[in-house]
UniProtKB/TrEMBL annotation:
It comes from Scleropages formosus. InterPro entries: PP2A_PR55, PP2A_PR55_CS, WD40/YVTN_repeat-like_dom_sf, WD40_repeat_dom_sf, WD40_rpt. SMART domains: WD40. This is Serine/threonine-protein phosphatase 2A 55 kDa regulatory subunit B. Pfam families: WD40.
């Protein structure tokens, strides 16, 4: 069992709390598998609201971006021979200001500093690289460590001031001296001035030389080494904007085919494109869309069918999409209908009118696969998040909150009832808090470790190891 910790400290405006022990759904027998809360990021100002969460390819690092333009990187603690059970805890590794608020003088518009997406690049040396974007500008950041500093300069004194050449009578060979470990984040590239509309997603290609950035109407392809030129590969902007019927909501490259990518739209459709076919991929190779049942049609049908996230499975065979009420899994070889459909919070169907009035119906929920593509996870309201086991067809609703994440306590499944009599462990749909929502989630690429962003709280849970 993890040691019982309850340590609080403040770092770059965040109050952090490391603690131990919570739980998850079982892959096979239906019993509860323990999860341990590894970290809680306690609430701060409005700018601390987390807007993206992303593990790197090994899962050793976890990056979060917030509305204030900051990126906080957490590093997983290395296993110690003396305390092997401490393996898995995430501590703050680096924090830096990625974007600042700007003003577009031509359009008289403010450009928010909010981080919309973070994507890690594969690690090829001791340094780490990540891409972060706000509404208009993508930046490439290098995160590196320094534990030595040069001393013994000839032309500078120890304080860095230039020495008078007349006072220099001997030559010294500078030497490297040990120093306290310092983690530096430096902006290596800035990819700007390529988007008229707001960037909603970025994706790194499997060739690791290019990436794409997507806004409401266009997708641009960049070379990582070239900042002043990008290639427009999708453009759905009509000649007359009054004829606009849909916008692009998300896009992602195939995990191992560098010529293939997919993008989703506000009309609930997904288009698979092949860059070998033509330079401009306005004509898709495959089109995925589920026909709407006429009996279910309502005023809100178009709004709730808008896809907020699209993700390839790790093996590249399947697509997962999230709309307002459901998560769907598509087989790339079957365009007519989804392979699987999971109801995330169908009990909200009767609440769509009030959700429209308070704008919650426009919330954009993300979805993620686990490392083996057997379980999918997505968020909901009241700080609930849902997990669906594709093999057993079991599902579970869990809650991320400090009250339910006490050390050594079981994170019990939650249930929502539609009305009438409710059991002691159930919560009424009328008492759900729609201001508490989990929009952003991430799953460790190979282990059962999940990160859940509940507004301005970050929760990291992992399987109990013993």
């Amino acid at each position: 069992m993890f040691p019982k910790l309850n340590v609080k400290w403040k770092y770059a405006g965040f109050w952090l709390r490391c603690e131990a022990p919570v739980w998850n759904l079982s892959p096979r027998d239906g019993s509860q598998v323990p999860w341990v809360p590894l970290l809680s990021l306690l609430p701060g100002a409005h700018s601390d609201i987390i807007s993206t969460v992303e593990f790197n390819a090994t899962g050793e690092l976890l990056a979060t971006g917030d509305k204030g333009g900051r990126v906080v990187v957490f590093q997983r603690e290395q296993e110690s021979k003396n305390q092997p059970q401490r393996r898995g805890e995430y501590n703050v590794y680096s924090t830096f200001q990625s974007h600042e608020p700007e003003f577009d003088y031509l359009k008289s518009l403010e450009i928010e500093e909010k981080i919309n997406k973070i994507r890690w690049l594969p690690q090829h040396n001791a340094a780490y690289f990540l891409l972060s974007t706000n509404d208009k500008t993508v930046k490439l950041w290098k995160i590196s460590e320094r534990d030595k500093r040069p001393e013994g300069y000839n032309l500078k004194d120890e304080d860095g001031r230039i020495r008078d050449p007349a006072t220099i009578t001997t030559l010294r060979v500078p030497v490297l001296r040990p120093m306290d470990l310092m983690v530096e984040a430096t902006a290596r590239r800035v990819y700007s001035n390529a988007h008229t509309y707001h960037i909603n997603s970025i994706s790194v290609n499997s060739d690791y030389e290019t990436f794409m950035s997507t806004d409401d109407l266009r997708i641009n392809l960049w070379n990582l080494e070239i900042t002043n030129k990008s290639f427009n590969i999708v453009d759905i902007k009509p000649a007359n904007m009054e004829e606009l019927t849909e916008v692009i909501t998300a896009a992602e490259f195939h995990p191992n085919q560098c010529n293939t990518f997919v993008y989703s739209s506000s009309k609930g459709s997904i288009r698979l494109c092949d860059m070998r076919a033509s330079a401009l991929c306005d004509n898709h190779s495959k089109f995925f869309e589920e026909p709407e049942d006429p009996s279910n049609r309502s005023f809100f049908s178009e709004i709730i069918s808008s896809i907020s996230d699209v993700k390839f499975s790790h093996n590249g065979r399947y697509l997962m999409t999230r709309d307002y009420l459901t998560v769907k899994v598509w087989d790339l070889n079957m365009e007519s209908k989804p392979l699987e459909t999971y109801q995330v919070h169908d009990y909200l169907r009767s609440k769509l009118c009030s959700l429209y009035e308070n704008d919650c119906i426009f919330d954009k929920f993300e979805c993620v696969w686990n490392g083996s593509d057997s379980v999918i996870m997505t968020g909901s309201y009241n700080n609930f998040f849902r997990m669906f086991d594709r093999n057993t067809k079991r599902d579970v609703t869990l809650e991320a909150s400090r009250e339910n994440s006490k050390p050594r306590a079981i994170l019990k499944p939650r249930k929502v009832c539609l009305g009438g009599k409710r059991r002691k462990d159930e919560i009424s749909v009328d008492s759900l808090d729609f201001s508490k929502k989990i929009l952003h989630t991430a799953w460790h690429p190979s282990e059962n470790i999940i990160a859940v962003a509940a507004t301005n709280n970050l929760y990291i849970f992992q399987d109990k190891v013993n």
